[in-house]
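subagent[fold] <- orchestrator: predict structure for attached chain, return tokens only, no commentary.
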Amino acid sequence: MSDSLSTIYHLIVQLSESLRESLLKTPYTPPEGSNFSVKSVLQPLLLHKPSPQNPNFGGDDDDDDQIRSSIINFCLACALISSSQSSTHDLLSWIPKHLSAAADSAFRQLSVAYSVSCGERSKKKIGELGINFGLLPDEKRLVVELVPEVLPLLKDAIKQSSIDKSDECNEFSAATARMPVGFAMVAANQFRWFVTQIDYPHLGKLCPLVIPCGLTALDHWSPEVKGQGMISFIHIGKNVNAAELGWFEDVILDACCQNIASSDEIWHFVVEMSVLLVTCIQRSNPRSLWFERILNEMLSHLERHPRNKERRVAWLLHIEPLFNSLGLVLLAHFRRIFPLFFQWMHADDDETVLLVLKRVQTVMRLTWIRNTPHVERLVDELAALYKEAALRRSRGDIRKLVSEILVQLRWCKGLQFEAAYDKHKDDPNLANMVLFLNERNTDTVVQ
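subagent[fold] -> orchestrator:
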């Protein structure tokens, strides 16, 4: 074994010992009725101190392979412990923050030491991936180098508890009988951690390795596994360009469509992921069938659950980039969008109301709501909301947005707006709104 690998080996032993001690002191109760223990998965990944009878390796190729295996296992342990920082699932919620921070620190120490001790070896491996070794900081080189070895292992672990769709008799129980779903959850969290350690411009070079594993996660039946895949694709969408997604474009967007009916706990992820990826891949083609499919899938889902606050807020928060990419093509979706908008304007929570008013502003800016029968009803709903706002905590913000939208409507619809607005001019509860509109109308005429 070379001196450089010997140095790395002894560092892993030292770092593993520290993490193991913290792990042993941390209380953990496996889920009731489960035959899966996260602690039992973690402990074998941490290298044990060699016995006094065998303090060193012999120096042959088998030793090098064992060192490599120890590096991979240690990094997988750090990935799983560190990923608990952004997880709310019971699977990892027992891991305390100080242990997550220790795992982060341990991985950085190993990565920097590996970059120094095995720099030439690392440079060659990273170069084979098409990535400029010199542009990577020391603490990122090891994770990039390990991607070709680690991701196939994680993909296989996820797949082992997936449902074989070609087998009509195969249900969740059959899938988990092959391998407890906990292993897929662990692998999905490790996958997400590895992917999110790499950013632009390096991640694009790794798409042929990253995307198949991510798609396997999206195709799993477990919401936790799916969610980790979605977070990974959100990171991918923010750190690669459309050209780097290459041959995967259609299969990625199809996976987005297939997952829009996901459960409540991960719906905000699927909306953010789908909007981000379709706008990245199809940005210059607003008439793309993928825009239509994804938007229609979302609208169908929202129409079935219009009173679900979490779903509507997630959609209203993330949908703006898709609206901007569609532009005038949004007109074709007005018959489905506006009934939802009208309903949500009177939702119980102020967050929904404020978001829907901002999205109405976006739609008007992009389309000037031309050729639509919704103008009169929009004026009526806005007037009703202005009065309702008197009893809301965010009444000032709501009334400001309502007034701004009415001004926009006057500019773009002219006489059609005046005809719809005329019935509200004498309402004493709208006196301030009428005054605001009159002042803005005067300002426009003077200009």
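orchestrator: received. Logging for downstream: The longest helix spans residues 3-25. The chain has a mean pLDDT of 90.
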